[in-house]
Amino acid sequence: MTKYILSRTLRSLLTVVIVFVTVFMLLRLMPLTGYFPQEILKETDEATRMTYLRNQGLLDHPFVQLWRFVKNLFQGDLGRSLTVYPKVPIATLLKEKIPVTAAFGFSSMVLGIILGISLGLLMVRYKDRWGDRLGTFYILVVRAVPSLIYLFFIQVWISKWFNLPLVFYKDRPESWILPTICLSLGSIAYYALWLRRFMVDEENRDYVKFAQVKGLPKKVVLRRHVFKNAMIPLVIYLPSDLLFIISGSLVIESLYAIPGTGGLLTNAIKSQDNNLVQVIVLMYAILSVIGVFLGDLLVAFVDPRIKLTEGE
Amino acid sequence: MKRALALLLALLLVIPMAACQTGNPSAADPTEAPAPTATQEPQEVQNAAEGIIGGKKYLKVYKTSFSSSYSSFNYFSTAYSTVRSIVSNCIDGLVEPDIYGVYVPSIAESWETNEDQTVWTFKIREGVNWVDHEGKDTGLAVTAEDFVDGIRYIGDPQNDAYSLRVVRNLIEGLYDYYWNLDDIDDPEVQTDLVRDEVIASFDETVGVKALDEYTVQYTLTSSAPYFLSLIESSMLLLPVEYDYAMEMGDDFAVDNEHMLYCGAYYISHFERDKAITLTKNPLYWDLEHITVDTVEYQMVPEGTTSLEMFKRGEVDDTSVEAEEYLSMAGTEWEDKLIPSERSLSTNYLWLDFQGENPEFNTFIQNENFRKALQYSLNREAIATLRDPVNPARILRNTINAEDAIFDGNGVDYTDYEPLKAIKETNYSNPELARQYMEAAVAELCEADGTIKGIEACTVDYLPVGTFEVDGKLPVTVIYVGTDDESEIIMAQLMKAMVEEAIGTDLINFEIAAFSGWTYGTVADPLNYDIYFDSLSTGYADPSGLLTRMTTDGAENVGCYEVPEYDALIEKSLNAATFEERLQYFAEAEAYLCNGAYVIPFISSLRGYYMTNSMPFTSPLTLYGNSKYKGTLVMEEPLTYDEYKTLEAAYDIARTEALKEN
Amino acid sequence: MESKKMPNAVLNPLKFRAAVFDTINSENTGFSNYSYWRSTIRTFFKNKAVVVLVALVFAMIVMSIFYPIFSDVDPTAVSLFPLDWNLRPSAEHWFGTDTLGRDIWARAWYGCRNSSLLGFCIALSDVGFGMIAGALWGYNKKLDPFMIELYNIMTNIPSTVYLVLLAYIMNTSFLTLFISMASRGWIVEARFFRNRILSLRDSEYNIASKCLGTPMRRIATRNIIPHIVSLIIMEAALCIPYSIGSEVFMGFVGVGMPVDAITLGNIVNQGRASFTLHPYQMLLPTVILCIITVAFYVIGNKFADASDPRNHV
């Protein structure tokens, strides 16, 4: 076990380093003009621009820049944002934004799991009857209708009917309701869909048939046998989902004016905010390897058939 | 000094008149028949307006929104308009416009200038102190030195000041000071200068001096009758508490706690990408004119959301786009829609004179071809995309905006001949476009349709794309714009117009949209044939735009070479009087438009707005950012009828006010 | 087990001989006439809803192939007269016209053709490559650590980073869009298939079958592929609507289709701006998009059910 964890950690570390260096180098391939917002570019001449780039250390050799970044990183300095939030320390930025997004992410994840699993169970329990059809209809609507349409509908009409605020306010708890619901719509469908699928698969297993033959009521079979086994493939993604609640949603955060991290990475990349991109990529890569690792641990924990050993 | 002021006042008088020429029915009455309004109606109109103003209850809080995320509050380096508008309420400049647009004292109590308007001296108000983000007195006074330090701050290349060019060229010695420092910083430049010595020489070499503690003097490189408007528009002439800024270093103004305030408000609350609150500065020198105690900004990224929030009373103003405008017909909001008043920004088509596309490059040197393009656009139809009801108010044929620059006699710059002729030309003429094109083809093509001296090749405009051209008619034209939906639609409409007018046998108009910041990847490296852009008149002088558009000017995106234009600009810069200067500028601008070296076609004006604030109660900021000083906030939205009455009364009042001066 | 090597001395070799494995007769046990594919198809079409949806999808495919060929309406014909813009549905324009007076009915079918083509290509490449890679990955233990790290690296580099770079060096075209979208989908699919194959390979009946000496090829074709087919179909069916939807994001990053190209994503995006004012502009494209998504989802699910050999009994 220790050996497994050790080798796993080493490999994960390698992954993180490769991801980080690749992204770091890719960013340095971007054209120099990209470091300037449109307005600034128009107002400045070539020489002034080079002055700016030199001040920011962007003209140094990529390896020099890499070394500087790593050195600062170990001193606990994440650097300052370049173009998206000029001169703002990245640590401050993340400290402000992550809690907001994480709070929404967590509540919508809990809501998604609870409702998603309930819906999935409902669909299995009443397979090929109204429960199943209702669930399928919901899943289809969420997946098929362009999200913009129903998100717009929820924001404008539902908020009117229930007299809820249109955008998010930190000090008004009722303003959390709609964004949280919007955020969880997709994951409810996701959990319901796959839980149903896996449970239907399990139901055909011999042990289930045996349990039924034994005379156990369907409810008990579903709960005691089928559900537990069907959850295993879903459980593996839970830690990753939990860690990535900090990544946020671009569309919904923009719709409800939530000052979170949604769209931060995309914006940073599009504006060539190297410093910000690097930090976010590094953070996400670390979280992702941790998430996968925890997922495996969790599966080993819930599924006694699986043992974590190197090379089996 | 008095003369300059009088001129300004007089010219401002004409603004409402010209505004009406664009066809705003509401404003038509008081201007088309000025005589009767001036004699009989004023009293009635005045009474009606007073009735409206008197019959309302006013609130102490103003709630507004902004759409894009902003970064720091560093007013010297920010390019974000939201930040600029917030800061202009928090840091006072030397002068400010009053509600009629007349410059009145702000931090400066009085000012004077010499005969040729190259030296401006300002007497600073005593007893104004900097306050911090809690509104507490720091004990630091705003002195002449703070204005000198503002220039000192932007003069150092390491502080990355934004939009430095105008000020850097205008203030004596600043240009050399900046570039000397830059040479020292650049490891590739050999120089004997020492940074500390150059910095120490600032007070000697740069034309801004604190004559005493409360007198600041600017020495300019050229005559600048427009200097007060530059103070209004440019953030770079604001004061700074230098020691404080230096102490903060990179942290200076990254949030509300790392800066000092001397304006009507201070930023009391700041939540990144979410909310900003401005609170009345208790130590403000002009406290009696501050009507709004608190201004609450909140971020609302989606336009439709802000409209909905306005309807529910959660914000006090909202813009209404053309589409939304139509959808509100017949609703309770119909009578509350007010057309946006003015935009100093003009939309252009740049033509690439040195591009890689051999077909276009051959043709663009030909004036007939350029005119064919110029006459092929139906400007009114394009404007219909922005305002389906009254598109005519959006049309603009000139580079500089109308109603923005006036001479000493109050004559609008765009009414100087030959610019006036351009302004009044109807450029929508497909037949003429076809004739011009045929003339161009006759000059440039063989009988079989091959373009002289051109071979088939692949045009490399990456990252926009690569294009195959065959060296034969039709001429391939590559239009590049951003991938913004509304811009794509405009481009598609232009394509249809050009191909319809000129004929697909002669022209092939291709659209290539590029996502992201087009200037750096498209315009600057000349990866286009036709490029859509906008520029705005920054202050009360045509030089702001026109001097940038000379053959080697910074804004000559198309890289044309027009020595005649350069000569006219040179002449105007050396002109003896302001009128003569405007005359030459008008000739230069007309020359550029006439030869279709650039094609300005509409203003950036768009849409309508709704508001809870009483109009004409805050300073008329033509060039700078709006201020909340004096703004009256109502409980109910303003109706269009009220607006019309108030506007009529305002016009009369302003005429009176200007006469008195 | 031992009998083959050492024939029992008591038995007379003249009277007994070792049976040869008879491939033909071994099939005849159990269900007579059982054919996996026939059974799948029969189960599949038993459901009425499925028949309707298949017919609908078929009709839409036919329509989007033949409409552009036989119609003389130009979907890019812009009207220069503002009066022709934003027309409501009429006899001439069944679903009205858009902001520039282009016929929405015609645009929808052109868009449907382009988008579906893209969707099919992406589904084919993602699921195709993904399955091959997943099979290799699942069956070759030496490959496993390498592939896992490759997967981790590929999924951790934000696609926007290289898509933005790709946009700098390539034209906006169908091919660029295809490359950008297909560049990563396969590894996600590969991992998915790897996990399923791994669990199937190690399931008891396959281990038993292997011990009984069944050739690997036979296990793969008879015991593993039928189980995977249901997954393949379902993944492919889900992939098609997904790629139609993500095309819009690709445009945002700069590797989308050329502006003039008509895709469902484009049309819906354009209609979005005027959604409150002219909702009918979005009606047809949205309905088509919904039908595609729903149909493929249901068909995928039902086919997966039908092709699952466990459901055949």
What would you note in describing this structure?
The complex is a heterotrimer of chains A (312), B (661) and C (313). Chain A is built from 14 helices and no strands. By secondary structure, chain A is mainly alpha-helical. Chain A has one domain (1-312): MetI-like (MetI-like fold, Orthogonal Bundle). Chain B is an alpha+beta fold and 661 residues long. Chain B has 2 domains: 42-172 and 207-300 and 609-636, D-Maltodextrin-Binding Protein, domain 2 (3-Layer(aba) Sandwich), CATH 3.40.190.10; 347-603, Dipeptide-binding Protein, domain 3 (Roll), CATH 3.10.105.10. In chain B, the strands form 8 sheets. In chain B, strands 20-19-21-16-22 form a 5-stranded mixed β-sheet. In chain B, strand 17 and strand 18 form a beta hairpin. In chain B, helix 5 packs across helix 26. By secondary structure, chain C is mainly alpha-helical. Chain C has one domain: MetI-like (MetI-like fold, Orthogonal Bundle), CATH 1.10.3720. Chain C has 12 helices and no strands. The longest helix of chain C has 38 residues, at 216-253. The radius of gyration of chain C is 26 Å and the shape is elongated. At the A-B interface, helix 2, helix 3, helix 5 and helix 7 of A face helix 9, helix 14 and helix 22 of B.
Q: Can you describe this structure in just a few lines?
A:
The complex is a heterotrimer of chains A (about 300), B (about 650) and C (about 325). With about 300 residues, chain A is mainly α.
* Largest interchain contact: A-B, 44 and 48 residues
N-to-C span of chain C = 31 Å
CATH class of chain C: Mainly Alpha
Write the CATH homologous superfamily of chain A: MetI-like
The CATH homologous superfamily of chain C is termed: MetI-like
Largest sheet of chain C: none
Number of strands of chain C: 0
Tally of alpha and pi helices of chain C: 12
CATH-derived topology of chain C: MetI-like fold
Portion of residues in beta strands of chain C equals: under 5%
Query: Which segments of chain C are poorly predicted (pLDDT under 50) over 5 or more consecutive residues?
Result: 1-5
What descriptors fit this protein?
heterotrimer; A: 312 residues; mainly alpha; MetI-like fold; C: 313 residues; disordered N terminus
